[in-house]
Design brief:
Blueprint (H helix, E strand, L loop, with lengths): L1 E5 L2 E3 L5 E2 L5 E2 L3 E3 L1 H17 L2 E7 L5 H10 L3 E5 L9 H12 L6 E5 L10 H9 L3 E11 L2 E8 L2 E8 L2 E5 L11 H7 L4 E4 L1 H4 L34 H14 L4
Parallel strand pairs: 1-6, 1-8, 6-7, 7-13, 8-12, 9-12
Antiparallel strand pairs: 2-5, 3-4, 9-10, 10-11
Helix pairs in contact: 2-5, 3-4
Length: about 260
């Protein structure tokens, strides 16, 4: 069983800065949290059933550190799509680039996190499934490989649904899949010698003008800081008096 995990390097929270064009300057990068959850599940499945886990990432050269960490966790190899022309790509271009990279690979399952902390779009997974013609199983809280297929429990408002599909298939996972492991010292040492394949747009057969800022179908038209918050009202009194004060506060604003 070969599982490919999409892993994005995102800005470390608190280090984000915007340049004059409102692009995020990614001084510090780390693996996207939701991607680490699906990576953990992929590792557990291959440890229990055999197989290997590969990583696929698209981003600047600095994303290599996030890939090395994922390799230290136990992934077998990584594929890194990096090219100066990628900067400023919209979701459509991102999906096109990832789809081109995935067509170069053979896999049974493709695991994708629910969303990324920098974009929060949550649409790359279904768009990739549509572009590649793969079954799409979303919001998985459990994943079970079958003979020639896969079964997942999909979270729903009423509990969960059980879905089955033939492989290859794309599974979008949730944090319920399990807490990501910490890389061991041995894993960190082994990661240094694991294969990282670097692809450019030319390697994928993609023309630079079709992606990046020049090919983007969405544009940033402006940005501004959020309005300053007013001071908070603090109640320091006995429990009974505090409850009365909170009720009066809400009632005055017709919230109750």
């Amino acid at each position: 069983m070969h599982i490919v995990v999409l892993l994005k390097a995102v800005p470390v929270v608190g280090t984000e800065r915007l340049d004059p064009s409102a692009y995020v300057q990614r001084a510090q990068l780390e693996a996207n949290g939701n991607d680490e959850y699906v990576l953990e599940k992929a590792l557990k499945l291959t440890e229990a059933n055999g197989g290997e886990v590969s990583l696929l990432s698209m981003g600047p050269p600095a994303a290599l550190d996030a890939l090395r960490k994922a390799l230290a966790m136990g992934a077998t190899r990584a594929y890194h799509v990096t090219d100066d022309a990628i900067a400023g790509s919209c979701i459509r271009a991102t999906v096109a680039i990832l789809a081109a990279a995935l067509r170069k690979l053979e896999f049974d399952l493709l695991f994708v996190g629910a969303d990324t902390s920098d974009g929060l779009g949550g649409v790359v997974a279904p768009a990739l499934a549509a572009r590649l013609g793969l079954p799409y199983l979303s919001y998985a809280s459990e994943i079970e490989p079958l003979d020639g297929g896969v079964r997942v429990r999909r979270l729903s408002a009423a509990g969960y649904d059980v879905l089955e599909a033939p492989t290859p298939a794309l599974v979008m996972g949730t944090q319920v899949l399990g807490e990501p492991r910490y890389p061991s010292l041995r894993g960190i040492m082994q990661a240094r010698s694991k294969e990282v394949v670097t692809w450019s747009l030319a390697d994928l057969g993609i023309e630079p003008p079709s992606v990046g800022e020049s090919g983007a179908t969405t544009r940033l038209t402006g940005s501004k800081a959020p309005p300053a918050r007013s001071g908070a009202q603090v109640v320091r009194a006995s429990p009974e008096e505090s409850v009365t004060a909170v009720i009066d506060f809400l009632a005055a604003r017709r919230l109750i």
